[in-house]
Amino acid sequence: MHDPDDLPEGLQAFMAERHLATLTTLRPDGTPHVVPVGFTFDPAGPDGPTVRVITRRGSRKVRNLADGGRAAVSSVDGGRWVTCEGTARVTDDPDEVAEAVRRYAERYQQPRENPDRVAIVVTVDRVLGRG
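The structure assignment produced for this chain is given below.
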């Protein structure tokens, strides 16, 4: 396990490269819901290290996090991998969504317009991985 506030350079570099990931949330019945996502990592987020995922307002992952909860984002490439876990929230605040889109565009590509877009913001408290 790594300190989210002091990640090894290899893990930070891995999270800056273009890799897809999975986001795991829990359904109301407690079973895991795992879906592919693009994500960004901000070591200096507003409440500490932060993962952001952009998505559609009505998605299952958003409904799973409607009242908050925990989430995990995992990415793997050969022997390099990372999992970021933390407390998640969904936001439709225009400034927060714009920041998530800006970061997504830097790491992946400019996403198409989506009037139903929201952002999932995970305040990371646990990081596992090898860079």
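Interim note for the steering committee: The longest strand covers residues 117-130. The helical segments are 9-16, 60-64, 94-107.
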